[in-house]
Amino acid sequence: MSYQLPKFRHPELPVNDLGYTKADYEGAISTLCAGCGHDSISGAIVRACHELSIEPHKIAKLSGIGCSSKAPTYFLGNSHGFNSVHGRMPSVVTGAALANRDLLYMGVSGDGDTASIGMGQFAHVARRNLNMVYIVMNNGCYGLTKGQDSATADRGSASKKGDPNIYSAIDLCGTALQMGATFVARSFSGDKEQLVPLIKAAISHRGFALIDVVSPCVTFNNNAKSTKSYEFVREHSEATGTIDFVPMHKEITTEYQPGHSHEVTLHNGSSIRLYKVDESLNPFDRRSAINALEEHRCSGNILTGLIYMNMDSRDLHEVLETSQRPLNALDESDLCPGNKMLLNINASLR
Amino acid sequence: MKPTDIKNPEYFHKVVDCQYACPAHTPVPEYIRLIAAERYTDAYMVNWQSNVFPGILGRTCDRPCEPACRRVRVEEEPVAICRLKRVAADNKEDIRERLPVIPATKNGKRVALIGAGPASLTVARGLAPLGYTIDLYDNQFAGGGMMRSQIPSFRLPAEVLDEEVNYILDMGINATFNVQVESLKEILDKEYDAVFVGTGAPRGKGLNLPGLEDAMPNVYLGIDWLSSVAFEHTKSIGKRVLVLGGGNTAMDCCRTSRRMGGEDVRVVVRSPFEDMKASPWEKEDAAAEGIPIYNNHVPKEFVVEDGKLKGMRFEKVEAHYDEDGKRTLVPTGEDLVFMEADDVLMAIGQENAFPWIERDLGIEFDKWEMPVVDKATFQSTNERVFFGGDSAFGPENIITAVAHGHQAAVSIDLFCRGEDVHKRPPPHVSLSSQKMGVHEWSYDNAVANDHRYAVPHAPLAKTLKNRKVEVELGFDVETGYKEAERCLNCDVQTVFDELRCIECDACVDICPTDCITFTTNGTEEELRHRLEAPANNLAQDLYISADLPTMRVMVKDENVCLHCGLCAERCPTTAWDMQKFLYNVHKAGE
Question: Can you give the pTM of this predicted structure?
Answer without folding.
Answer: 0.90
